[in-house]
Backbone:
């Protein structure tokens, strides 16, 4: 059983050498009397929150990875044997699994049986999985959006951002996204239907860039990056604007996080800024699937993935999130079936 092991806790930017591939023998059997599920992993998801699990954390919503053990994360898998009556041999599932060829997992709230196989299976790590739910719940539940409002999305071409932009367009909003390369900016406009997009790395003055696209201000900011971008957005928000704080990837590798200077705008502009975690919204998952699967099949919602092939490519793929190497949702294909 090939595995991706985290060697040690990480400081600063993660490197491929923080992980190693090991081959171990495991017994592919459900332990007597347990409700564990033995699976073959097909697709693994690379997600920014995994960076926080590479350090020693206490009292957070997730646990640290165990150095010397396989990395864990979201994935799509096939059930080989099940001690849980909810799952049968041959079922396809998505949820928390290991970065290895085969895993023995204890089903938690986030192990879902896949019913609709008429879409690419890897989508269950993205649009039909955790990032999809993040975009849906974050936009519709946290942002309180209304038709005609102005929306700004950062890290807009990524797993979550590309969907937030499309959901906002479906509602009839004016949507602008930022991303870190020309290729990504082009994708935002040509593929995902953003009204405008810009490369934040090429802007000397982020606030001036936002003013260019939002002369009358921003109603909704879907925050994925934090830091300087948040500061620039705050001064460009409209009265009674909403900020959904989904993530702050620009801060994840810093030993000392940057300060935010313009928080006083929350008061003067009566802005509501709200953090959220997707886990609190999984009860909406069936409703989300009912909405999004027909939209995918009709080609009205599109999804771009960046697929790395083979478990060996997983460390490079994961590390690449923090330099913007991924174009779209970063997935690792372990096995096609
Ligand atoms: P992405 O697919 O967007 O991948 C990460 C992207 O972030 C990179 O491609 C890069 O794009 C951008 N990035 C990396 N470093 C920086 C930086 N220093 N400054 C600005 N941008 C940077 O990831 P996801 O869509 O999966 O996640 C987006 C955000 O949502 C993350 O902050 C994540 O933690 C958060 N999240 C939160 C959840 C929740 O429950 N609250 C659930 C899921 C995700 P570029 O080339 O544009 O710089």
Residues:
């Amino acid at each position: 059983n090939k595995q991706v092991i985290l060697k040690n806790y990480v400081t600063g930017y993660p490197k491929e050498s923080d992980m190693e591939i090991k081959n171990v023998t495991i017994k592919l059997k459900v332990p007597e009397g347990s409700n564990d599920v033995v699976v073959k992993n097909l697709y693994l998801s690379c997600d920014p929150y995994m960076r926080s699990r590479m350090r020693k954390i206490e009292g957070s919503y997730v646990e640290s990875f165990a150095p010397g053990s396989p990395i864990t994360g979201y994935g799509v898998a096939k059930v080989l044997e099940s001690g849980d009556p909810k799952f049968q041999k041959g079922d396809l599932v998505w949820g928390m699994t290991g970065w290895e060829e085969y895993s023995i997992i204890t089903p938690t709230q986030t192990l879902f049986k896949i019913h609709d196989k008429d879409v690419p299976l890897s989508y269950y790590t993205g649009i039909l999985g955790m990032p999809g739910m993040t975009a849906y719940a974050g936009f519709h539940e946290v942002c309180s959006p209304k038709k005609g409002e102005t929306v700004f999305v950062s890290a807009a071409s990524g797993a979550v951002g590309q969907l937030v932009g499309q959901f906002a367009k479906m509602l009839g909003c004016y949507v602008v996204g930022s991303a870190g390369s020309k290729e990504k900016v082009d994708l935002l406009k040509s593929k995902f239907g953003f009204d405008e997009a810009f490369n934040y790395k090429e802007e000397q003055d982020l606030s001036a860039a936002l003013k260019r696209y939002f002369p009358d201000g921003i109603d909704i900011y879907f925050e994925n990056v934090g830091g300087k971008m948040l500061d620039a957005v705050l001064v460009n928000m409209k009265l009674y604007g909403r900020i959904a704080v989904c993530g702050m990837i620009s801060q994840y590798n810093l030993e000392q996080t940057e300060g935010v200077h313009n928080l006083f705008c929350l008061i003067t502009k009566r802005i509501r800024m709200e953090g959220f975690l997707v886990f609190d919204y999984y009860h909406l998952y069936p409703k989300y699937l009912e909405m999004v699967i027909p939209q995918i099949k009709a080609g009205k919602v599109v999804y771009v993935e960046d697929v790395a092939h083979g478990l060996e490519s997983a460390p490079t793929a994961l590390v690449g999130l923090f330099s913007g190497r991924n174009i779209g949702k970063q997935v690792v294909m372990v096995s096609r079936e």
Observations:
- Residues 284 and 319 are 31 Å apart (CA to CA).
- The chain is about 20% helix and 25% strand.
- The chain has a mean pLDDT of 96.
